Amino acid sequence: MSSLGRSSALIAAGTLASRVTGLLRSVVLVSVIGGAYTAAGDAFTNANQLPNNIYMVISTGILTAVLVPQIVKWSARDDGGGSHISKLMTLGAVLLVGVTLVAMALAWPLLWIYSSRFTPDQLALGVLFAYWCLPQIFFYGMFALLGETLNARGVYGPYAWAPIVNNVVSIAGFLVLLGLAGGDQVHVADWQLADGAWNLPKIAALGGVATLGIVAQTAVLVVFWRRTGLSIRPDFRWRGIGLRAVGRLAGWTFLMMLVGQVLSAYQQTLLSTASGSGPASTSWFNAWLVFMLPYSVIVLSIGTPYFTRLSGHAAAGRDDDVRADIGRAVRTLGVLCVLAAAAVIVAAEPAARIFNNSREDALSVAPVLIGFLVGLVPLAVQFVVQRTFYAYGDTRTPFWFTVFQAVVAAALATLSALVFSSDELLPYLAAAIALGQSLSSLAQVVLASWLLRRRLGPVGMGASMAALARFALAALPAAAAGYGVYLLSGGAAGWMLAEKIPAVLGCLVIGAVVAVVYVIALAVLRAPELKAITQLVRGRLRG
């Protein structure tokens, strides 16, 4: 098994385990805060999402775009880059402490940006949750900084596996809270005392458990740091490590973050209109979590080692190797992502039932999940294209096609809010905005691919698109077979939506049927990618 294959297998296994335990975490959390129609749950979700938003910027923005290539270069130094990385860690910790303190001081306006259409009591509850959740910023940031450094040094496992610790700690804490609460906490008043005052210990317990899990997963990376072979120490002498050049690159990713946050805030503001009346923030992020399971296991596990190798080829000026990496990555990701999208779309209702407390809630949330899944394949291609620009030290071009995507997504979200504004249609607002997000990703990848071709010349995207069309053709009978199984089980009134455990079994049955028929269809079409993916799967199993 190649080094790339071993790395991908390690990341895939860890990512799968962390995502599965993350799903279990959300299942337990839904039992505490409620599912599709939970006003209190939406308040907690938006509060807990504030540090997550910053983490997403750090992990997929500045660190991935800028620092991973820099760390790869530093590793060629005589000391393995230890002195520069010590300065980087010190600077990162100082900045994260500052950002965390500022965010806590601005908790109310920060939450209001995402939740301006909440009721006053719902917003007040969210702010109280935010005070306990915002310290996660520091630990999320350090987790990303340590993890990306481990990846750049070729130590892939801990970063993929550490979130399991977070999930286990959170599940245990939420189960204790569920036992003490004795049932769903759906209404804002459930978090108040008899005299109307807020139940601060209860609020602190939920927010504290969520933060404790992040602290635990960061501590895991500290334990594994010795595998890098580097010894770091606090070093405040930041001059001489190329911060000016890094800053120029990071400036574009910071602007990209602002664009993403503005879009997210706008979408969440529109969603807050539906809070308590239909799927809103809690359902949105639970659907996103299900969507991220195939994305993380397939795209991140395979794509991350590709990015590291692609960065090395780009740094050495081997453009032909970069083009070859792009084609292989797109086709490898595509054949698996098409399968995942078909399977989960067919199983959307059972999948939604896992994260909701009733059959009716699951039926209302399933369209949100389907809306996200439409964008799975475009996002996979986008991952490859965007990181190719990053490998060449170009963060400006990704900023501009991200602006384009945000404009399209915002326009579609606005249209959705206008069309689905009535009481009868409000329960479909989240699904419409999710679909708009996916369509904007499709538009973005078209533009980004064209810009990449202008930079590198032909990168074989035409052949890759033909392969994706072949995969989609094979997915049609596979999806039909899977949906037939769902209908035979009784459909929306059947056993798959009766309880959460039958819903899990239903997803497994549908997924297995879709996978088998998909492989047969690829064989009938004589898709050359089938042999490659079979070898990849066999290698993963051996690994």
TrEMBL record:
The chain crosses the membrane at residues 54-76, 88-111, 123-147, 159-183, 203-225, 246-267, 287-308, 329-348, 368-385, 397-420, 426-452, 473-497, 503-525. Its main location: membrane. It comes from the Bacteria. It is found in: Cell membrane. It is a multi-pass membrane protein. PANTHER family: LIPID II FLIPPASE MURJ (PTHR47019). This is Murein biosynthesis integral membrane protein MurJ.
